Amino acid sequence: MPDTSGSSLLQTSIGRLHLTNPVLSASGTYGSGWEARDFSPLSRVGALVSKTVTVRPRHGNPPPRIAETPSGMLNSIGLENKGADYFLAETLPRMRSLCPRVIINIGGEAIEEFVELTERFCKAGVDALEVNLSCPNVQEGRLLFSTDPRMCERAVAAVKRVASVPVFAKLSPNVTDIVSIARGAEQGGADAITLINTLIGMAVDWRKRKPVLGRGIGGLSGPAIKPVALRMVHEVSRAVRIPVIGVGGARTAEDVLEFVCAGASAVEVGTAAFVDPAILVDIVDELQRLLAANGTTIALLRGSLAAPLAAPSHGACPAPTHGAEGAAAR
User: What is d(CA 16, CA 30) in angstroms, rounded to the nearest whole number?
Assistant: First the structure.
């Protein structure tokens, strides 16, 4: 029987990065954690993941940038940030004071930018890098590095050549075959894969005959995308040999355990923190209770989901069976 009497039941690893629990903040939804420091002790979270940092400051997309949707929200922030110089001098020290594990999400529109950021943050001594290959709100939504397996491999390989810390590749769900992209990241040397970023969507104001968001389209996040995220985490975790970090719609400890069962080694919580900034630590507490009550651990639960007996091929829909005709066909 596993030891479920203490915190060991929550421990997990993402490659060589060891965490006390699998709960992470999701990039772009929690800032640096500084704004939430008075709500709960963030030192108890597995790791804080920063908002995307770019080489130079970015003003972001035109407003409006946020729109609520049923079971989620659309955002079109456009990676607004003050740039690497400011982050290294002002923001990183604050993150370190909040949590023992800090993961920096880096973004760029060219491989050279990813490499420069990698060198600078590795020198600063962060715990890991999450390479944002997948933001739908920049590059006119072209997502060059997360829609072409070869481009993904090239970008990750360039980062890995100069990285001294684990490198996680954050991929887009807005592709026809997520497994091929994930394999490209693995071949480039990624230590883990983060799935998923937001789904591209839009909201319309029919009275004004115009989109609600200033840029027209945005990224859909929240509970509405959890089924897509679970499916992709399960598919990719069975297809690659490196860990997978799940993200997309998790808002309870039950959600986190679903992702772990599907194959995730850790889970990022994002949109739910807009509703309750203390939710990450609350989830850690509930995870402890649920795992102890069920006599299991994160390590034992990870990837334990039974594979379907006969999964349809990509893009194929199983033929329906009805009544006697279905029985006769069988």
Answer: 25
Residues in the chain: 330
Residues 122, 135, 152, 261: which is the catalytic one? 135
Comparing CA positions, the residue from 144, 81, 74, 148 lying closest to residue 111 is 144
Three-class secondary structure of residue 302 per DSSP: coil
* Cα–Cα distance measured from residue 313 to residue 299, given in angstroms and rounded to the nearest whole number: 30
Please give the model's pTM, rounded to 2 decimal places.
0.91
Q: Do β-strands 244-247 and 217-221 pair in parallel, antiparallel, or remain unpaired? A: unpaired
Tokens of 138: 């920049």
pLDDT in tens, 222-276: 999 999 999 999 999 999 999 999 999 999 999 999 999 999 999 999 999 999 9
3-state class (DSSP) for residue 310: coil
CA 250 to chain centre: 10
152 belongs to the catalytic site: no
- Mark out the alpha helices in the chain (DSSP H runs): 84-86, 92-98, 111-124, 144-147, 149-162, 178-187, 226-239, 253-262, 272-275, 279-293, 298-301, 323-329
Q: State the fold for domain 7-61+78-199+220-307.
A: TIM Barrel (3.20.20)
